Amino acid sequence: MRKFFFSCSFFISISFYGQTENDSIKTKSLEEVIVTSGKTPKNKAILPNEVESINRKQIEFQNFQTTAEMLSNSGALFVQKSQQGGGSPAIRGFEASRVLLLVDGFRMNNLIFRAGHLQNVITVDENILENVDIFYGPTSTLFGSDALGGTINMTTKNAKFINDTHSSFSGNVNTRYSSINKEKSAAFDLNYATKDFASLTLFSWNDFGDVKMGKRKNPHGDFFGERETYVETINGNDVLVSNENKYVQKFSGYSQYNILQKLAYKTTTGFNHNINFQFSTTTNVPRYDRLTDATSTGLRNAEWYYGPQQRILAAYTLEKQKAIFDSNLSINIAYQNAKESRHNRRFGNYNLQNRKENVNMYSLSSDLNKKFSKGELFYGFESYFETLNSNAYSQNIFTGSIEGLDTRYPNGDNSMFRNDIYISYTEQSNSKTSWAVGGRLGYTTLNSTIEDDTYFLLPFSKIKQTNLTYSGSIGMVHKTSKNVALKTNVASGFRVPNIDDLGKIFESGDGFLIVPNENLKPEKTISADFGLVIQSKNKRFKFENIYYYTRLFDVIITDNFEYQGQSQINYDGTLSQVLANQNKGKAYITGLSTIVKGYLVNDIQFNASFNYTYGRVVEEKEAPLDHISPYFGKLGMQYEKKWGQFEIYMVYNGKKSSKDYFPNGEDNEKYAPEGGMPAWETYNFKSSFSILKTTTLYAGIENILDTQYRVFASGINAPGRNIYGGLKYSF
Q1: Which of 48, 176, 340, 586 has the fewest CB atoms within 10 Å, i.e. the most exposed one?
Q2: Count of CB atoms situated within 10 Å of the CB of 583
Q3: 708 is in which domain, residue-wise?
């Protein structure tokens, strides 16, 4: 696969350099990438750090079912899945709480974001997105804690004024149907515009049935993961039932509802007032991997599902050009609420365990930027206050009787308070050289109390931490010629331990129990990037290769632990090996990412990406690091005219050998075939047609060969052959 990719890259490079600016008078060129974050210059070309963007046009054409699917098929990053209703992005070997998620610049990461796998990205529906920026490497200087592997900034659609729409009322209706899970989706948005006032209202709904896996054997591995049996409760008894169609992943479906409301008002004095309200909720989302856990007598769990995953954002933004010290000002006040819950019941045990978490997040920030003749200064502060309420109970599914139960997190008062100031400066000194430098200083406090430890005796009743944090970055882009640029960037990152790191009691799998450890310190990284960018004079071809090396310090790793002198504890009827989160010395991650894009002929564009990551813990001897994906990427061609667009592409992953799995970690070796996760590739076709000026038809086939495969670290097989169709009507 790698030889094939580099051969294609070399051949395409020669083909493009055979062209000159004068080969065609009216030739298409690659679009300039515009970064939408308010903390960096918009022109990607002068940024020393690696950034990739996915714009609205690409999102609409790709027509994926969820934001997680859109990210995983972009070729820009890796996404793990434990159930259909999920998707945990990984960047440069970092995942979950070590990757920062932003929506419209507001942190989604909260005090219970875990180090395992997260499904929170699906709560930002792809129908509301205008643009997605992916920042690679430590970006704590720009965005704060958790941005060790990178940051994903999801920007939602804005309300448009009359000058932008030329119509008081405008909007869109989108529908889609997919065969692989009988998906039915619809979205409706309405924009009302005047000269000074604008309103955007958007509703969307997604219904996903049980997803079918592929039926064709993976050329790189054997058949794996078929759903042979499942559990039903019949006449008051749990019964193991044979699945009529072993390729249907029983109990993987769910539904989701989303609302976006934006209001914008411009005053005659130059102030812009913006209201941003977002709401997303799901039905119960089955935790598919846990429903397939086997025992000697059948299946371990009769029920295991996440309750409705709810996300609320309510934000007010005040903007003014040249408001303070000739700087553009943006003041943001926001409230976020996140509700999630876990519900599970063992086979033959009719008491359903319910654990519920309610997180509130309040934030205040001020961002300023000032332009100079050659440079741009960004500075400001952020303040986030978060609270958590964690409760639990056990309820008999027949009698309704309720009993107490140990909570997932400390059951008293839990809070975190983050306060950061930052500054960064970017300058284009001349036509050949640009550079950037920045720094961030922060102070975080964490307080947690255990009111009742009846169910699990703890040696402490309070957890309290204070952490002073800092990070910095410096980088440069230098053009050695009109067609070649070199870029380098050195940056540090940090992640402050949260409640999930410090106070969680969690059964991680068969015979393992994670217990609290109050003596954790922040994780820190420092990373160096070296990049080569080649672009043809006519901007019809671009090659970009980034090599990076990251050192990790005080890495938080789940490992063997003694709790009150014991290495094993009887928990929930099972003798379990004790594990705990610990700062385990040092580690490193290195790798490269390559992107090639350009036009073969005027209307046919070639795209290719390749990503390779290698990570190791450094102690007495090197050992595999968690969350390190195998090599992956995308290879495809697009044909585009005014009346339509076509794309054929391949998405691929390399093999993850069992010797490279981190033991007892989140790589989920138990959900992989013997020997590790095989390599795989899928072939896909997408198209869109402008039927009328106001109507666009979307259609395509994903996983054309119906290959049966599973993504590394995932607990559910990927979808098989999927035929989809969609219709967009604009008015």
Answers
A1: 586
A2: 16
A3: 2-239+253-730
CB atoms within 10 A of CB 430: 10
Q: How many domains does the chain have?
A: 1
Q: Could you give the 3-state DSSP secondary structure of residue 680?
A: strand
Asked whether residue 622 is domain-assigned, the answer is yes
> How many alpha carbons lie under 13 Å from residue 248 in its C-beta half-sphere?
14
- Distance, first Cα to last Cα, the chain: 45
CB 459 within 8 A of CB 491: no
Q: Which two tokens stand for residue 580?
A: 């705990």
Residue closest to 500 by CA, chosen among 571, 407, 408: 408
pLDDT for 300: 95
The stretches of 632-696 forming alpha helices (DSSP H) are none
Q: Which residue has the tokens 């890495």?
A: 555
What are φ and ψ of residue 155, in 5° steps? -100, 125
pLDDT in tens, 271-305: 999 999 999 999 999 999 999 999 988 999 999 99
pLDDT at 458: 67
Return d(Cα 90, Cα 117) in angstroms, integer.
Answer: 9
Residues 6+ apart with CB under 8 A from 325: 368, 370
How much is the pLDDT for 6? 44
Q: Distance (Å, rounded) from C-alpha 40 to C-alpha 49? A: 11
Give strand ranges (E) for 137-222: 150-156, 169-178, 183-193, 197-208
Gap between the Cα atoms of 18 and 546, Å rounded:
25
- Please check whether residue 245 lies inside any domain of the structure: no
How far is the C-alpha of 337 from the C-alpha of 357, rounded, in Å? 11
User: Mean pLDDT in runs of 10 for the chain (731 residues)?
Assistant: 46 45 61 86 92 94 95 94 94 95 97 91 96 96 96 97 93 98 98 97 98 98 96 95 97 97 96 98 97 92 96 98 93 98 96 97 97 96 97 96 92 95 96 96 94 71 90 97 96 95 69 80 95 94 97 86 81 79 87 95 94 90 90 97 96 96 84 96 97 94 98 97 97 95
Q: Which amino acid is at 172?
A: N
Could you give the C-alpha distances from 466 to 416, 591, 694, in angstroms and in order? 10, 34, 56
Residue 3 is predicted with a pLDDT of 47
Strand ranges inside 195-347, DSSP E: 197-208, 229-234, 237-242, 254-266, 271-282, 285-286, 294-295, 298-299, 301-306, 310-324, 327-346
Picking from 610, 605, 594, 505, the residue whose alpha carbon sits closest to that of residue 558 is 505
The CATH number of the domain holding residue 589 is 2.40.170.20
Q: Which residues, other chains included, contact 409 with Cβ-Cβ below 8 Å and sequence gap of 6+?
A: 112, 357, 388, 390, 448, 499, 500, 503, 504
Distances (CA, A) of 317 to 193, 364, 713, 728: 19, 10, 39, 31
Closest among 104, 136, 12 to 601, alpha carbons compared? 12
Q: What is the CB neighbour count within 10 angstroms for residue 598?
A: 24
**pLDDT value of residue 509:** 56
**Does residue 356 belong to any structural domain of this protein?**
yes
**248 lies in a domain?**
no
